[in-house]
């Protein structure tokens, strides 16, 4: 049976890495049909709108989108398109896997950590940010709710069960932020009781940063609030060699958007050297989400094998001599062989 997904190529290197990703998906024969729609500068220039209604409608209709990076123009009162998408579709879970790949310039090998970040509340509220008239006092609100905390912690545990993970660590600052972080922690403790098969651990955020740098192997799944998750997931990406291998999944009840964590990289756009792996790994997560777990695993394995045995085909950011196209072709060949 075929499944239609919304595809948003995006800006800058977006169209290049999207073409590479779709080449690998096609090699896997997933039965996906692509409804290509626009957002970002491309959409602004063509339709006078950074996020046209047709794009929102396509995501709502197909419930799954694969998205290239989008450029939000600086100034002019534009809100980030990514933030708008998150709010519009209530994409409450931001899932950021950090996996080691061979032959990359990373501090550690054998890392496999998934950060599950609450994506809609916490310290990132649009409202409640004030500055006094004299400019001397700036204030913002942190708001965590029982509902928001419960659904993100439950998401992390459900994901751990589904993916055969062993341990969930709730990261917090409840010793100081007794109300907001305290509520999150007490909800995490409650929800953890429903999953006795998964080890539950809790850690204060500053200690978590140190532990991640010193002994990352002790982490499996991390669940945390918005601001801490934003910071920790980039820290984890750094542990495995940076943004070129970092996918980001934005999951809600009614829609899910899969993307690379990096931006539109205007400095290398059009040069054919963008690394397609972050978007490819997002596509692998998308296949997991669609129930095609073996195919998602095949993409990750093909990237691993290409980097281990055919490193020259990789893009220069990973130390290779290849291009976006040579890298994608090598990965596509391996998934075809494995099928
Ligand atoms: P960036 O991630 O685009 O680039 C940072 C550096 O990493 C650059 O040197 C770039 O060449 C390199 N890089 C990024 N992706 C790469 C890839 N796939 N292969 C090889 N090298 C890569 O960050 P930026 O320059 O701060 O942002 C550029 C634009 O992207 C901005 O308009 C920003 O708003 C947007 N952005 C979008 C998203 C998104 O849509 N999810 C995320 C971050 C930034």
Automatic annotation (TrEMBL):
Keyword Oxidoreductase: yes
InterPro entries with a match to the protein in the record: IsoCit/isopropylmalate_DH_CS, IsoPropMal-DH-like_dom
One Pfam family here: Iso_dh
Listed GO biological process terms: isocitrate metabolic process; tricarboxylic acid cycle
Sample GO molecular function, one term: isocitrate dehydrogenase (NAD+) activity
Keyword Oxidoreductase set for record: yes
Keyword line: Oxidoreductase
SUPFAM superfamilies on file: Isocitrate/Isopropylmalate dehydrogenase-like
Residue ranges of domain Isopropylmalate dehydrogenase-like in the record: 4-331
Family named by the database record: Belongs to the isocitrate and isopropylmalate dehydrogenases family.
NCBIfam families: PRK08997.1
Protein name, UniProt field: Isocitrate dehydrogenase [NAD]
Organism in which the protein naturally occurs: Aerosticca soli
